[in-house]
What we know:
Layout lengths: L12 H9 L9 H8 L10 E5 L5 H9 L3 E6 L2 H13 L6 E5 L12 E7 L7 H9 L2 E14 L6 H10 L6 H10 L2 E8 L3 H8 L2 H11 L4 H20 L3 E10 L2 H13 L1
Parallel strand pairs: 1-2, 1-4, 2-3, 4-5
Antiparallel strand pairs: 5-7, 6-7
Helix pairs in contact: 2-3
Amino acid sequence: MSNENKSIHEFDFNLICEYFSSVERQGPGSPEVTLKALDFIENLSVQSRIADLGCGTGTQTITLARHTPGQIVGLDLFPDFISIFEQNIQKLDLQDRVKGIVGSMDDLPFGKEEFDLIWSEGAIYNIGFQHGLHTWREYLRKGGYVAVSEVSWFTDKRPAEINDFWLDAYPEIDTIPNKVAQMQKAGYIPVASFILPENCWTEHFYAPQVEIQDNFLKKYAGNKVAEDFIANQRHETQLYYKYKEFYGYVFYIGKKINSFFLFYRHFASSMA
Length: 272
């Protein structure tokens, strides 16, 4: 199959957006996992500001809104996702505290030290884990938190098939200890990390796509690009079931380090 090692980013953005607009989640996760990660965040109040970057249609944003005080802004590159996001927020009467905006995670339209918490589930890979952590840090207030889920290796060695697939799709994939070290280097105290359960992939992400994929192929019958896209999605699913013991999503939670201590650490390192 010629498309087996294609990255999703190689397909037409409009096609990707239409497909993922039809599913509740745009990546692995669950409300239970969102709440587990949220338990590590301290000192949120009605004055707190939270950003959910790469929010998609806002499934996890709604969970955050139901269990946190303060104001929340969801940001995503796709206008159609934000349109659905806003509809969902209106249905739940959360529009006074939650809003969605179109924008890039790599060029945030916010002020420095504006947020107490930056959240991102399954989306930071779009700009890279290390780059995202470095870039977003300036938007956090002193003592603010970042919480992201990121695909990671569970083992130091793995079969060539899955190793090659992920290195081609996301070269920055790494082991959990290395990801934690990257977070610390980016200027955060690593607060916690934990592996997402398998049902975040199987029950909450892959299973809902089965019927949607069949309908998508019927709608775009004979369209080679659409057929290749669905074949790519199904291939990724097959690889997960075959190699799930070697990789998965991991939540990483970090707390912004005081700038003085960050400067001192860099200075001490340069003098060593």
